[in-house]
Structure formats: C-alpha cells, structure tokens
C-alpha cells in the first residue's frame, strides 16, 4: 500500500451507516435498506483498505484518550497534575492517581478500559470482514496482500491487549464481535499473555519488513514492530504471569539488533526520533503518522500541548492552537528552599542534571528552519508580544512573569532565590511557577512548514537496546549492559563526554538502571510499567508520595460502569 494512500485513509476514514425504513401510505409492505454486511460493504479494493484502517485512527487516539497517558505518568514518580490555585483540582481525581487511592467510581478507571476495548472491537470487526474474503482477486489484491493486512490488524490488537493486560491484568480476550450480544468471561493473566504471544508469533512471518516497505513504512506494523512488542511482553512477563522470560527477551532483542526482522538504526541526534523526519526514520519501529492539517493526537490536550505553561505557545511562536494549559509538569527535585529531597525515586530534572553536559538540558528554543535545541522549559520564557514589545510568559492567576522551577509551592511573584514563607509543597499547594516542563516533540513556529508534523513514535529502536541492556544487567553482565546503553546515550552528550558509563559497567545499579529508563523515555507513557517491573511502584517513596499499604495498586480497578454493564466480570483484587 502506498504511503500517500495509507495516510489519506488513516486520517480521513469515517465509518457511516445510513439506516432507512420506507413504508408507503397505502402499501404496508416494509422495504428495508439497512442490510449492510461485509458482502455488500466490501465492493472495491478501497473498501477493503478503509475497513482495514478503521481501528488505526481510534488506536492512535488511545495513546492519550481514555486517560491512558495520564494514568501511566501521573501514577508514577515522573509527572504530576497538582492543584494550581484552583486549576486542575478537578474533585481531587488527579491527586487520587498520584497517591494511588483511586476507586472504581473514578471515571478514568472505566474510560481507559473502554478506550482500549474500543480499539480491540474495531480491529476484531475488521478482522472478521477480511478473513471472510475468499477471493482476494475480486478486490485486485493478492492473497499475500490480504494476509498481510490481517496480520497487521492482529498486531494492532495485540498492542491494545498488552496495554489492557498491563492496566487490568484480568481481561477479556475478544476474537469475535459480529452477532455477539454479551461480553465474554475474563481470562487469567497467563491465558491472556499466551494469547497475545501466539497472535504476535503467528502474524510475524506474514508481515512486511521496513526494508521492503521503504518510505511507505509510516503507520505500518512490520516484522520489526511485532518482534518489538514481543520484547515488551517478555520484559514484563514476570509481572504479568509470575514467570521470568528475560532470556527470551534478550534473544529476541539481539535478533532485532542483528537485523533479522528488518533494518533499523539509531538516530545520531537525541531529538531526531521525535522530529518531523521520524516517519521514515530507521529508529521508528512503529509510529502513527501525524500532521498539522489532519491527525496529531500526541499534540492534543491529552498529552504534550497540555504539558506547557499557559503562554508557552507565544514563546515557541506557535499560535495555531491558542494558549496551553499546564495539566502536566515534572515532579520536583527541590523543596521550596531549594534543598534536594532525600528520596531516591523521582526527581526527574535532577536525574538529568547528574550528567551536566547532557545536550537535552538546554532550555528549549526554536532555531529556525525546522530545528530546535534543548528539551525543557524552565526559568523565564521571553517573547515578542502582539504590540512588538519584549514580554515574558505569564500565568492566568496574576500579571507577574512566571519563573518555572524544579519546585512546587506558592511562589507567585517571588523572584528566583527569594525565600517564601509558605513551606508547603504538595499536590494541593502549587502555582503556575511550579514544575519544569519537558518538550519531547517540537513545537515549531506557525510559519514553519514542518510544524506539528512528527509521527508518534510508539516503538523506538532505542527501546530494544534498553530492554536488552536490562536483561544483561539482570543476568549479571554489567559490562554488556553499559555498552548497549552507551550506544544510545552517546548522542545525548558531546563527543568525548565523561558522562558515558565505564566499560566495565561498575556504575550501574538497580537505581541507575531505573533512572536511565526515565531519562531516555521521559513522558513517553511507560513509567508506571517500568516502576512495577523494578518492584518499587507500590513500595517506593517519591515527592508527596508514601508507599502503598500493599501491591493491589499495581493494577487498576475495573470501573464500576464497566461492571454494571458486564455483570459477568469480577472486580480486581483489593477493590
């Protein structure tokens, strides 16, 4: 399938069904026009393509829709949504996520389930349509092309199911939706794991490689992408099933690096995996294609556009979306008196500052010609206002300039370094100066041709290196782990940097491994999963967060609305 054709449909496909019943005034025989089946809906190759793509757009939305991103990040030691002088309190729902005190009555416990199962249902419905095609030539397709589409849908469904397994553990395996009026029973985590694993293995040989697809790879599940999902599954297998699969994870990760499932390569610049060139980047193992004019879910309010202070778009020169709204920021590393907290988890900006020459530590700045430097917004953010005068970013709770800092409190108009009387630093006592903001994907100026054009890189080749490094570390081979990590890390530092790990891996500890996962994958929607795998999600301490009473918080409750609609389901333990 050509890239422009795929992009056109993935952005614009809309499923419409017009149901009509006509009855004449004198003739009471009913004429029905509502019989839409795969036999009469699928008439052309384009029909098959549209059917194939139905689940992709919803799945792209699901990276943040249904609060999925919020639940992964805000429940961890990485991101926060504090009460900013009344903004973002929202009935305390984000505080309950931070403190792990959510309940089945919290809407997001239902929303995430529905968002992910919405994708599973769409993918399964399309699978049933495509698997029902007995003569692909009728649609000017070969059997190989049709089997490839079916395989891609199974991989997409597996990706959704992995996330369901990660969130809820006791899930329903859906393989049929047509004619179904009731939901199925829950599978055990072991059964769900086995189903996902087998579905990926079965799909893998029927998929294309990125080498075969070339520049048409954007938005396509390939052999490399499917193998990468198996790496994710195996890396977390002990959490999901109780059985360690680190050896299988290592074997498969090494095969991917060796080129068995396609030709992949790491970018040489730290920002390139997130830039407008990433749809065809050799580091993107699977990405949802995005653009300013069409779909761009990672730039939506559910993710990165609300990971900015109010007037940050003016600082960027990107004004097409209006003002931002600071829903997300990084958790602080310093108290209100600028003293570093003593806990070891969290403190993301301090973890970056551990290596002083990290190129990502520069303040984010657009350089022109679709280029930028730096990954963080901090301090004052100057810009030229509509009157042509120099100004600086301000909040909406006072006219004073904002000074963004690695702290949480009521700083208001206090100048940097000024001691404030209010020493409270918690989720319920923040202002718009509180927290540093990461800018992972660029916000180029409104007149830049490549603004908001990045794909969402759901699977990056760097993840395979980090997964293999973790397996090597767990097996006692710190030297091999250090080499693998440095292969990725070297792009974050100047040539000859002392910040690379020593060749013997002696600097690596459990905490350093976990910190390095944070540095490389900050705000990519995986931190909760990593904390659970390292055994500290429920037992750890970080900013304004004490250990949980037990481990039942490692999975979310199934929302009460879901249980009400599906009485055959049983609530997860502890809820």
Automatic annotation (TrEMBL):
Keyword Signal annotated: yes
SUPFAM superfamilies on file: TPR-like
Transmembrane segments: none
Major localization listed first in the record, in broad terms: membrane
Name the UniProt record assigns to this protein: RagB/SusD family nutrient uptake outer membrane protein
Keyword flag Membrane: yes
Protein family membership: Belongs to the SusD family.
Source organism of the structure: Dyadobacter sandarakinus
Keywords per UniProt: Cell outer membrane, Membrane, Signal
Signal peptide segment: 1-23
Domain spans labelled RagB/SusD: 420-575
Domain SusD-like N-terminal: residue ranges: 94-235
Pfam families for this protein: SusD-like_3, SusD_RagB
């Amino acid at each position: 399938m050509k890239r422009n054709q795929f992009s056109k449909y993935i952005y614009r496909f809309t499923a419409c069904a017009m149901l009509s019943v006509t009855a004449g005034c004198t003739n009471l025989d009913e004429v029905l026009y509502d019989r839409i089946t795969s036999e009469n809906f699928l008439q052309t190759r384009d029909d098959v393509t549209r059917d194939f793509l139905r689940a992709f757009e919803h799945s792209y939305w699901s990276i943040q829709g249904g609060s999925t991103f919020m639940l992964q990040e805000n429940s961890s030691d990485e991101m926060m949504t504090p009460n900013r002088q009344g903004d973002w309190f929202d009935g305390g729902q984000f505080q309950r996520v931070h403190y792990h005190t959510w309940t089945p009555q919290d809407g997001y416990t239902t929303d995430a389930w529905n968002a992910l199962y919405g994708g599973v249902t769409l993918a399964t419905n399309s699978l049933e349509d495509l698997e029902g095609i007995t003569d692909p030539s009728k649609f000017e397709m070969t059997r190989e092309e049709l089997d490839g589409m079916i395989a891609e849908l199974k991989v997409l469904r597996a990706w959704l199911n992995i996330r369901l397994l990660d969130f809820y553990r006791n899930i329903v395996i859906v393989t049929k939706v047509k004619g179904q009026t009731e939901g199925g029973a829950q599978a055990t985590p072991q059964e769900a794991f086995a189903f996902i694993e087998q579905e990926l293995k079965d799909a893998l040989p029927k998929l294309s490689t990125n080498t075969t697809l070339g520049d048409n790879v954007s938005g396509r599940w390939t052999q490399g992408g499917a193998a990468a999902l198996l790496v994710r599954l195996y890396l977390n297998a002990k959490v999901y099933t109780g059985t360690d699969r680190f050896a299988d994870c290592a074997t498969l990760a090494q095969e991917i690096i060796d080129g068995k499932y396609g030709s992949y390569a790491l970018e040489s610049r730290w920002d390139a995996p997130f830039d407008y060139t990433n749809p065809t980047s050799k580091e993107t193992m699977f990405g949802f294609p995005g653009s300013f004019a069409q779909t761009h879910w990672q730039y939506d309010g559910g993710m990165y556009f609300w990971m900015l202070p109010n007037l940050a778009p003016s600082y960027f020169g990107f004004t097409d979306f209006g003002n931002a709204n600071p829903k997300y920021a990084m958790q602080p590393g310093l108290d209100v008196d600028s003293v570093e907290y003593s806990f070891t988890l969290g403190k993301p900006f301090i973890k970056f500052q551990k290596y002083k020459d990290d190129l990502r530590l520069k303040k984010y700045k657009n350089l022109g010609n679709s280029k930028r430097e730096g990954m963080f917004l901090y301090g004052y953010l100057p810009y030229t206002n509509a009157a042509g005068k120099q100004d600086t970013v301000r909040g909406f709770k006072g006219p004073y300039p904002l000074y963004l800092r690695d702290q949480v409190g009521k700083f208001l108009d206090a100048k940097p370094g000024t001691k404030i009387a209010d020493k409270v630093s918690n989720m319920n006592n923040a202002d718009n100066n509180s927290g540093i903001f990461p800018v992972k994907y660029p916000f180029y100026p409104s007149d830049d041709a490549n603004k908001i054009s990045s794909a969402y890189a759901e699977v990056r080749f760097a993840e395979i290196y980090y997964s293999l490094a973790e397996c090597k570390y767990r097996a006692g081979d710190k030297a091999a782990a250090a080499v693998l990590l440095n292969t990725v890390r070297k792009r974050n530092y100047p040539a000859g940097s002392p910040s690379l790990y020593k060749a013997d891996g002696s600097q690596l500890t459990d905490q350093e491994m976990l910190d390095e996962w944070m540095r490389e994958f900050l705000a990519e929607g995986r931190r909760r999963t990593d904390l659970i795998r390292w055994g500290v999600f429920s037992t750890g301490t970080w900013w304004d967060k004490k250990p949980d009473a037990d481990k039942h918080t490692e999975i979310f409750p199934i929302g009460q609305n879901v249980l009400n609609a599906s009485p055959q389901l049983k609530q997860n333990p502890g809820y």
